[in-house]
Structures are given as C-alpha cells and as structure tokens.
Amino acid sequence: MTMTRTLLLILSLLLFGLFVRLWVGAGSYPDIWRWEAQIDKQNTENDEQAEINRKLQADIVGLTKDTSTIEGHARSELGMVKRGETFYQVILKSDAQSPSPLPPPIPEKPHVE
To answer: Name one GO cellular component term (predicted).
Structure first.
C-alpha cells in the first residue's frame, strides 16, 4: 500500500466518523429538530399565558375602577343576590349530571321591627 492510499483511507474513515456524528451524536440534525419543536411548543404556551395574563390584568383594572364589575363577579362567581331579588336556577337536562356551578341562595332573615 502506498502512502497516498493509506492517507486516503484514514481521511475517508475520519470523514465517515464526522458524518455519523452529524446524524447520530450530540448536536446532530435530529437533535436540533427536536429542540426546535420544543422551542415552538414553548413559544405557543408562552403566547397563551401572555393572553391569559392580559385578560387578568384587564380584569384587575376593571375591579379597581368600577363597582359594577365587582357586583358582576359577585353575582356570577359567588352566587350573590341583592336584597329583594329572587334567585332562579335553571337546570337543563344536559346539565343534570354535572354539579351546580352556583350554591343555593341563603334565605334572608325575616325583617323584624
């Protein structure tokens, strides 16, 4: 074997090793594609969380500036009613299996003078 063939064989083996590492080892193309997919997924989750945060911030601003917003939250989330109002709860057949979202109203104490 001549020196040229030996050198060519060594360089071919080295080149083959580099290509194997490019496709299989750490930092390989499939590895990079996996990381890019994870980055895209994380960016999507970040956008969703940013939208939720924006809505919550708007809700906070509304609660600090407007008493009707506070009343609306108390009615929808806590099931509160004003004095003299009657609470009606409509249960649809499709909702009969699910638990009630609002607690039953607390009866008012009779007014004694």
So the answer is: plasma membrane
In a domain, 43, yes or no: yes
Q: Name the domain count of the chain.
A: 1
Containing domain of residue 75, as a range? 27-79
**Residue 37 within any structural domain of the chain:** yes
Q: Which long-range contacts (CB under 8 A, 24 or more apart) does 81-85 make?
A: 81/105, 83/108
Handedness of CA 80, 84, 90, 96 (dihedral sign): positive
Report how far residue 61's alpha carbon sits from residue 77's, in angstroms, rounded to the nearest whole number. Answer: 18
The whole-angstrom distance between residue 26's C-alpha and the CA centroid of its chain comes to 31
Q: Give 82-109 pLDDT, tens digit per residue.
A: 888 887 878 888 766 655 556 666 666 6
Residue 7 lies in a domain: no
Kindly give the confidence (pLDDT) of every residue in the chain, 113 residues in length, as a single tens digit, with 9 standing for 90 and above.
689 999 999 999 999 988 888 788 777 888 889 999 999 999 999 999 999 999 999 888 888 888 888 888 888 888 888 888 887 878 888 766 655 556 666 666 665 55
